[in-house]
Amino acid sequence: MGALVRAARELLNWRSLRWKIAALVAAASCAVALSVGLLVHRSTFDRTMSVGQERAFLALQTVIAQCGRGGDCALANPDNIPPSLLQQVRDRKQPAVRYDDSRPGIPWMWAAAPVDGDVVAVQTDMGADMRALDALDRNIVEAALAALAVVVPLAALAAEPINRRLRRVARTAGRIADGDLDARIGTGRRARDEITGISSAVDSMAGALQGRLLAEQRFTADVAHELRTPLMGLTTASELLPEGEATDLVRDRVRVLRTLVESLLEISRLDAGAERAERAVVPLSRVVEDSVHRTGLRARLSVTGDPVAQTDPRRLDRIIANLVVNAHRHGGLPVEVSVDGTTITVRDHGPGFPRELLAEGPQRFRTGAAERGQGHGLGLTIALGQAQVIGAELIFGNAPDGGAVAVLRLPGGTRSEG
């Protein structure tokens, strides 16, 4: 049912290229029909006038011939003769014709000539001729409309293969933008048009982007792995140092370096798609409370009901811990953590997330605005990656009254124990 609705919506979308092509064909057809119709109308009208003039002259010659045989040459219907025709004959002293349609529905063709100082005039009924011309115009309009009724649907159908190929390009580009770098459009061997060029360019772009990202991932993983061995030695050596202020400083920097290396290794595994969720039914209130407690940082925890979710508790703990640490490191107190059903919200009261993060998402080694504090910019990247592994949605935003807000929505409905 949903597929039918989407198909109907695409079919009725007047902004679609299909209907734009159909409208262009319709406009071109109307222009051709109008040009041909005007040409035929004008040609038929001129021919009708020419035939009417010949009939009027013949009738005039017949009347003049009767006058020559002693017939009545009195001016025929002097009140009905067009004044302009009468004046023209009197001034030029030669025969003339004039079409008169001053009276609606009663068109006449007049012919007049000077005879013995007077004017002889006759009129010929043009009603049948003009009705035939009107009928021709109607037939032209009806034929044009009938042609449009056939041409427009055919144009829409002819444009559908092009439209379908463009939709395929758009869908594939959307998949690439969503992270599916293996998506390809593929081009037919026979097609050699502009859409094929676009498809080839998108496939080439996806291939180049995939290659660069894989190279970056390999580099990150190699660096992290290579650093583990000297880091273990450095950690061991720092433990052997005599106690003192300098030793504490060295050990603190070693812990920071170890955290950075472990974060890089975790990111490399997430980028490689090597992480798999191990789901279990867990009480969210207990998991979130334990996660906050292990960070050693203060946070106000509020839980609505006793929610339960089927998720990976280890990865959920990693997400909550990173969000709380990020709130303390870059935000402002108090930090609040709330659990409502399968939705977990972490909020601080600092300057909020920078606009770049809200627009593009978290980026590794980018902490955003200076007022957000110092760090490597890996915590939110890891939280987002782990959320994708467990099928959760992680949304970043800013509260209206200030402060950063991270909302984690776990998959599945809300449940309560007991």
Secondary-structure blueprint of this entry?
Blueprint: H1 2-12, H2 17-68, H3 83-92, E1 96-100, E2 108-115, E3 118-125, H4 127-177, H5 194-239, H6 245-272, E4 280-283, H7 284-295, E5 300-304, E6 307-311, H8 313-330, E7 336-340, E8 343-347, H9 355-360, H10 379-389, E9 393-398, E10 404-409, E11 415-416
Parallel strand pairs: 5-7
Antiparallel strand pairs: 1-2, 2-3, 4-6, 6-11, 7-8, 8-10, 9-10
Q: Could you describe the 3D structure shown?
A:
It is built from 10 helices and 11 strands. The two termini are 38 Å apart. The chain is α+β, with helices and mostly antiparallel strands and 418 residues long. It is an enzyme of class 2 (transferase). Residues 160-214 form the HAMP domain. Pfam families: HAMP, HATPase_c, HisKA. Residues 222-414 form the Histidine kinase domain.
